[in-house]
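Work Package 4 report. The design task specified in the project plan requires that, given a folded chain encoded as structure tokens, an amino acid be chosen for each position. We show below one input record used in the internal validation round.
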């Protein structure tokens, strides 16, 4: 459904709230994204009455039948004049829509969904139906049979002529219905499901000729109110105040395991054989695809934006049939589906259904889900409830698509016209389906779903769902104030950065923590410059430890009872650490560095409290930022925040006991232990040599450069925002100290195949956008080639990752200094380095000849579970679902059923990254081992590893972090992956003097034990060769 025609949760035909509705609204105020609708078979032709009742019960929209706007010609009727007149009168009662004048246009465009049903002249008597909707002739399948029927070569000319006339008549009726929906501005229309068998014309003709005889034999067609007895709720004897969500009895639970799903018999008749073979690739399905393609490209969909919702029952053949139909419709964004849950789900097929649904949610453009009341069971109090397997389906669907998925309750109640008032109230509300809605809302309000759909992170992400964004030009684009503000709300990223800086500082002072007294660099010494000493009092140090603003915290173990406390004078040795923050933005990394320095200083003071000379840190912080607006913000912080100026305000309250630092000690400093002094510099980090202050720092022999360099230059793919080039530029300037630590230390790019009809459709839509927005209407369009050769940042939602992600390449910083032997060889070839002074920076030399081009050739072997636990490719792996679909029982069921393995369609690749911000040399495992553990589902960011990690790769995802979304690499043409086949992906990172770009391609292969070795089922072209469509400027 288009954004302009979204079904509104606030629309309705009656604003009066019933007591039931008020109670229901009060119980669900925390649910922000649950849009529910109802299909009334008893009010299908009266949208006004249906909407009035629905709004009283808290439903958001209703379904109404599309009228037959084409009058039946007299020549096509085989009845007498009297019977013909009667037929026309009967038809008139249904097609004359009084609700058109009783509802304003806003309700039709926001709160009503249309549905194609069988007009009376297309209803066939004698049809066997399974389900209440079909029993009432509400699925429109008779009309679909006429529209998609085929004629064989053995048919007689008279039979073919009759079929052609019937097909032409059905075509006029169908298009009349759709044009009426467009005229009323109805946002969506529900259409019949894809036929699984061919509709042969001679069968339709024979069925039509025997129609009247069958009606006499059966006494007429079935009533609209007839339906499955499983859906009736007549035996309820409890009051409305009782708990309608009480757990079902054991007998009710056992009723759910009664067998397999029933086969759909929508193309069988009483006198037809029922052993027809199901085929998703039958001619009638192709006819249906042709009809939908014509409809999707007409003004009904392109101008009026009517969305087409195809019914898809929850069976494996139906799921596969719709994916094939969508491919034939060129994955049109106008063609979606409504998933119909109308059968039981046995335990033995549940894993295969979950696996198939995982693929389907990405490949099928799911718009809504329908719950037929016939599948609801009763709990011990008589209220509707769902089986555990159906609850699992509900959680999967809502957990994946809950913020955009519509819910529909449909189906007929048994003998509704004979119910007395008391029983009608017990059924629930004006619609007699209120308790069904209450139960679904109850499932939706459980913590497992509310944590995913209603949290602050989910609310922030909602505008970005499946919304493609071109990656930043990081060296040319400046972020807006609001963008900085949004990113700074990330509760995980900056905490992890602070932990990483803290670990680096602790390792720099490792010897002091271990009780070593020697100064200077070494294995057990400290790596930071000794600045001098500071004489102060124990009371002032205690105040530093208790000051929460600077993060020292209380020392509960400090039992210090020294004589004269708190006025006892002590000497504190101050060590200076130089921290360089490149790309400082509005200062969140600076604040984390300040906090880390104060926390480590507090630990040092506590660790050395038994010594005569205590130890602490003082930080010289340099914040470099190229955005002039952000520089102004940093300067404002510098002017107003004492923590940016060494914290000298601490001394103001201690004038009575202020200690002189000039008692014969020449090596004293006037700095406060544990504080930081920030210098703000506005320049490009790669041009540090050109800035006077940094130039002096580089050329001054007494300045040894930065001890720690901190940056947040990572992109969605790790390196796609030129983090390697930027950090290499900083190192080449010679501003980094030998042995400098980088935060992040390393980052690895990951990639995985993804199935998403929505993302592929959105990528194609980019082709119609202006290439240069500054030129306005005069700008040429982006074009299809450029649109499908550009990687996009996207919060994937209607997508399915089909294989576990694999690493492409890794970048690490800073580059280690070259060895002495290698340096001599370089100097022998380079005369410019022959005369070197003692201040020559070997670290800068190591970054001068670095090549950041990369390539990877990856093979994604067949995964029987299709990586169901990875979900949409963004977020942590669902271990419970992954275990469910990969259990031994699931594998045994899959081996016994050849139809459980489905063909997968991939629409591109999803890129992500895993970054080790800092890993201590004293960590229990190496960084490579951390990545290996991460790929096996182990979270390596624990404190016991002495490392800090951030990641958006599903198998190591940093839960709660939202600063990065994945990078989507589209394919020009989707690739179908048959069961057992392998997906090969090749990706290159290329560059020249001015640009960096990616090239990628894919192929589908399958092992062949013959001479060929493997069979190539499909291949894509190489996308973006030479950076012709997309690149990042250096």
């Amino acid at each position: 459904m288009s954004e302009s025609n979204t079904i509104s949760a606030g629309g309705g035909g009656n604003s009066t709230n019933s007591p039931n509705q008020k109670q229901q609204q009060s119980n669900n105020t925390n649910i922000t994204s649950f849009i529910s609708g109802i299909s009334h078979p008893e009010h299908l032709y009266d949208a006004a009455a249906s909407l009035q009742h629905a709004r009283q019960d808290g439903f958001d929209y209703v379904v109404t039948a599309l009228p037959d706007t084409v009058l039946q010609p007299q020549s096509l009727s085989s009845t007498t004049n009297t019977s013909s007149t009667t037929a026309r009168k009967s038809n008139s009662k249904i097609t004359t829509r009084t609700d058109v004048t009783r509802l304003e246009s806003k309700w039709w465009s926001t709160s009503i969904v249309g549905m194609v049903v069988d007009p009376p002249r297309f209803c066939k008597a004698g049809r066997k139906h399974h389900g209440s909707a079909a029993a009432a002739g509400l699925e429109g399948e008779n009309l679909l049979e006429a529209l998609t029927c085929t004629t064989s070569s053995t048919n007689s000319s008279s039979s073919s002529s009759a079929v052609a006339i019937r097909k032409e008549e059905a075509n006029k009726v169908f298009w009349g219905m759709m044009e009426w929906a467009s005229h009323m501005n109805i946002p969506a229309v529900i259409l019949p499901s894809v036929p699984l068998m061919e509709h042969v014309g001679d069968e339709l003709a024979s069925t039509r000729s025997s129609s009247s005889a069958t009606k006499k034999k059966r006494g007429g067609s079935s009533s609209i109110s007839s339906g499955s007895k499983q859906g009736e709720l007549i035996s309820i004897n409890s009051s409305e105040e009782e708990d309608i969500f009480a757990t079902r009895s054991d007998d009710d639970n056992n009723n759910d395991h009664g067998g397999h799903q029933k086969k759909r018999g929508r193309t069988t008749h009483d006198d037809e054989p029922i052993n027809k073979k199901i085929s998703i690739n039958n001619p009638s399905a192709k006819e249906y695809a042709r009809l939908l393609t014509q409809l999707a490209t007409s003004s009904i969909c392109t101008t009026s934006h009517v969305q087409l919702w195809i019914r898809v029952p929850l069976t494996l053949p139906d799921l596969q049939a719709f994916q094939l139909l969508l491919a034939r419709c060129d994955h049109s964004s106008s063609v979606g589906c409504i998933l119909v849950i109308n059968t039981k789900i046995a335990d033995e097929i549940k894993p295969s259904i979950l696996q198939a649904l995982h693929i389907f949610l990405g490949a099928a453009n799911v718009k809504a889900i329908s719950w037929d009341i016939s599948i609801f069971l009763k709990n011990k109090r008589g209220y509707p409830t769902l089986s555990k397997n159906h609850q699992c389906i509900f959680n999967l669907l809502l957990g994946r698509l809950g913020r955009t998925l519509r819910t529909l309750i449909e189906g007929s109640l048994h003998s509704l016209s004979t119910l007395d008032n008391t029983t009608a109230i017990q059924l629930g509300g004006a619609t007699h389906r209120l308790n069904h809605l209450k139960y679904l809302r109850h499932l939706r309000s459980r913590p497992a779903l509310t944590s995913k759909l209603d949290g602050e992170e989910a609310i922030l992400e909602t505008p970005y769902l499946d919304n493609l964004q071109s990656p930043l030009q990081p060296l040319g684009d400046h972020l807006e104030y609001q963008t900085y503000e949004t990113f700074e709300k990330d509760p995980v990223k900056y905490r992890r950065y602070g932990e990483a800086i803290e670990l680096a500082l602790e390792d720099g002072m490792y010897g002091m923590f271990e009780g070593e007294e020697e100064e200077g660099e070494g294995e057990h010494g400290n790596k930071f410059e000794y600045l001098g000493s500071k004489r102060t009092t124990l009371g002032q140090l205690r105040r530093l430890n208790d000051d929460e603003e600077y993060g020292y915290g209380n020392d509960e173990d400090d039992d210090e009872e020294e004589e004269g406390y708190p006025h006892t004078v002590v000497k504190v040795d101050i060590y200076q650490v130089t921290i360089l923050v490149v790309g400082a933005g509005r200062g969140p990394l600076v604040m984390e560095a300040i906090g880390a320095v104060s926390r480590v200083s507090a630990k040092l003071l506590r660790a050395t409290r038994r010594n005569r000379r205590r130890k602490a840190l003082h930080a010289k912080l340099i914040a470099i930022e190229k955005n002039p607006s952000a520089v102004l913000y940093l300067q404002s912080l510098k002017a107003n925040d004492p923590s940016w100026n060494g914290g000298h305000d601490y001394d103001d309250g201690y004038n009575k006991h202020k200690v002189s630092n000039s008692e014969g000690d020449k090596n004293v400093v006037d700095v406060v232990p544990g504080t930081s002094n920030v210098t703000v510099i506005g320049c490009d980090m790669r041009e540090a040599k050109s800035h006077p202050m940094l130039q002096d720092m580089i050329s001054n022999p007494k300045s040894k450069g930065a001890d720690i360099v901190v940056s947040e230059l990572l992109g969605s793919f790790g390196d796609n925002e030129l983090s390697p080039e930027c950090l290499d530029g900083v190192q080449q300037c010679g501003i980094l100290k030998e042995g400098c630590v980088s935060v992040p230390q390393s980052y690895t790019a990951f990639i995985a195949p993804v199935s998403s009809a929505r993302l592929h459709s959105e990528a194609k839509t980019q082709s119609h956008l202006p290439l240069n927005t500054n030129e306005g209407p005069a700008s040429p369009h982006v074009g299809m080639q450029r649109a499908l050769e550009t990687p996009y940042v996207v919060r994937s939602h209607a997508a399915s990752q089909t294989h576990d992600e694999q690493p492409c390449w890794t970048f690490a910083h800073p580059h280690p200094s070259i060895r002495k032997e290698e340096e001599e060889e370089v100097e022998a070839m380079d005369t410019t380095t022959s005369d070197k002074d003692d201040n020559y920076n070997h670290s800068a030399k190591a970054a001068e000849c670095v090549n950041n081009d990369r390539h990877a050739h990856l093979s994604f072997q067949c995964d029987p579970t299709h990586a169901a636990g990875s979900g949409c490719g963004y977020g942590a792996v669902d271990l419970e679902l992954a275990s469910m679909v990969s259990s031994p029982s699931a594998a045994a069921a899959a081996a016994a059923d050849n139809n459980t393995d489905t063909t997968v369609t991939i629409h591109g690749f999803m890129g992500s990254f895993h970054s080790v911000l800092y890993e201590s040399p004293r960590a229990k495992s190496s960084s490579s081992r951390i990545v290996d553990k991460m790929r096996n589902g182990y979270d390596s960011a624990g404190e016991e590893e002495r490392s800090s990690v951030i990641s958006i790769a599903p198998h190591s995802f940093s839960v709660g972090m939202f600063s990065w979304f994945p990078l989507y690499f589209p394919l020009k043409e989707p690739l179908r992956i048959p069961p057992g086949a392998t997906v090969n992906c090749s990706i290159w990172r290329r560059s020249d003097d001015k640009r960096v770009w990616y090239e990628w391609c894919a192929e589908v292969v399958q092992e062949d034990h013959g001479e060929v070795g493997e069979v190539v089922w499909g291949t894509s072209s190489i996308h973006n060769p030479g950076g012709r469509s997309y690149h990042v400027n250096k």
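The longest helix spans residues 157-183. Validation will be extended to a larger panel in the next phase.
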